[in-house]
Amino acid sequence: MKKLRDIEIRERARKLLGVSSIYDKEEIKHNFRRQMKLVNPNGPGRDHQYVPEYSNHEVARLIIQAYRLLATGHSPTSMLENDGLVGTMLSGDITPIGDTETREGWDAAKFYDQFGHSIWPEPSARDRKSAKHKFGGRGKK
Description:
By secondary structure, the chain is an all-alpha fold. It is built from 6 helices and 2 strands. Strands 1-2 form a two-stranded parallel ribbon. Helix 2 runs antiparallel to helix 3. The chain is elongated and about 75 Å long.
């Protein structure tokens, strides 16, 4: 079974920041600041290239996206989906994005047949009527 893309992206962010848990906000903040000191595009070591073939600006954007994803739970993930940059930083310890599956694809594989029809049977008229009654099918009086 393919790995879900959301899970792979969160794992990449966790590994990039070097945190053991995505729930320890203090460790996430500490490691983010430590990483940013190394690649700050305006810092004292700005002439030193932290990751070969990539500018410190790109690496800084990647670290910022990883931090935002772990700190807030949502963030743009365009840099985290860059297999080349992330693979270089993590020494190839990643699953390529092409080998992962989106949540929509996973749902479609689980709940629909090869023709795109739902695997669940249609409810009978009696079931639909009782569902309306149970879940507020009564109109305002």
